Amino acid sequence: MADVLSQSEIDALLSAISTGEMDAEELKNEEKKSRIRTYDFKHALRFSKDQIRSLARIHENYARHLTSYFAAQLRTYVQISVASVDQLPYEEFIRSIPSATVLNIIEAPPLDGHLIIEMNPNVAYAMLDRLLGGSGTGINKIENLTEIETNLMKGLFKGSLGAFQEAWSSVEKEIHPKLLELEINPQFLQLVSPNETVIVISLSATIGKSSGMINLCLPHVVLEPVIQKLSMHYWMGENKNALSEQEYRVLRERIEHSAIDVKARLGTSQITVQELLGLDVGDVIKLRQQTDQPIIIDIGGFPKFYAQPGKKNKHVAVQIMKPITEEDDLNE
Length: 332
What we know:
Elements: H1 7-19, H2 24-32, H3 49-74, E1 78-89, H4 90-96, E2 102-107, E3 114-119, H5 121-131, H6 147-168, E4 178-183, E5 197-207, E6 210-219, H7 220-223, H8 232-237, H9 245-256, E7 262-265, H10 273-277, E8 295-299, E9 302-312, E10 315-323
Antiparallel strand pairs: 1-5, 2-3, 2-4, 3-6, 5-6, 7-8, 8-9, 9-10
């Protein structure tokens, strides 16, 4: 698809042609030349730019939830943000990560297959150090984790899956991620074929004074059931605010039983501080309100109705006369 020029670019182009800086014939000849673009079938692009942007938005939300979770668990400074979103072959992803790292194997029903959350050893050990009461120093000792350390990390990562579920709930409400295994060596992982296209979301993470990357590997086969929901047409076409009949009924019942303040303003007055300090039982304050004028009813602190005072069943009451509109001047 050809690039769309802005109005300023069009004006600059016309100006260059009129002054002779550019030749219109050369532009025509350039347009006639065949445009050839190389395409590598081993690096098939199976996700559109629109879907990539949707995945970026989802995982920006995921990064925010993950920041809150780790900050609460580790009680230290945590900052996580999306660095990049790319699609590449699974084999290339495996080659790009360290030979000894922390790999969380996740399943997320109803999605098929497995996905990977890879955590840089520097970040992973900084988290482990904080869990064990340390200052959060990042030291790469992933190759010789003890059983206790492994279980501690599993518990921390299991708790973080709630952030993943929350971020993806806008696309798939019934998703239930589950940690299957924690691996150290990526060479033992062959979840999909080497040429299978995967989405790799790289998160930049800072834990205390240590920093590194957290990479999410989402194979195409896993995202295939929800791939249509990642397009902008789906987001624009679906009414996200639409409520089911049951949700509407529950919401209405809750609102109907909500308490709200209703106040009848009999009138207003203005006195000095000296007069206020001198007030005593039996004193009368003159209001700026005529007996034949309607009083104002405040709902939740806002003027909503005109009313007239009276009695009903020996109780003081007010009768609503009409609603207050924006054209009404309440200062009159």
